[in-house]
Amino acid sequence: MQKDCPVCGDKIIGRADKKFCSDYCRNAYNNQLNKDSKNLIRNINNLLRKNYRILEELNPNDKTKITKSKLITKGFDFQYFTSIYTTKTGNIYYFVYDQGYLPLENEFYALVKRNS
Ligand SMILES: [Zn+2]
After folding, report:
1. How many separate domains does the chain show?
2. Is the pTM above the cut of 0.70?
3. Could you tell me the distance, in angstroms and rounded to a whole number, from the CA of residue 23 to the centre of ligand 1?
4. Which end of the chain is more exposed for a tag (fewer CB within 10 A), N or C?
5. Which helix (H) or strand (E) is 54 found in, with range?
6. 7-21, 45-59, 89-103: least confidently modelled range
7. pLDDT tens per residue, range 19-34
């Protein structure tokens, strides 16, 4: 069965399991895949870094209480954190590296810094 190269659209000539017309197209395809996954990682790293900076800035004394709107105003993105810690009493802390936040009542958050 005749297949077309997914990169350039040329007919693929040769072994039946060949996926690309040439080394050039195979490399171009793999480079693009790497680039996309690297962009994804970079974008998430940037969001984590931003979240970390916001927590650090709002929590200079390693423990404080703030409103959710303060975090949102700064551009905090609640989807991105690096770990979760559940206490024995069932409270769930979300951590961005060593900066953590705990949702409290009435849209307040406790900010904590984990001792290293
Ligand atoms: Zn090709």
Report:
1. 1
2. yes
3. 8
4. N
5. helix 23-58
6. 7-21
7. 999 999 999 999 999 9
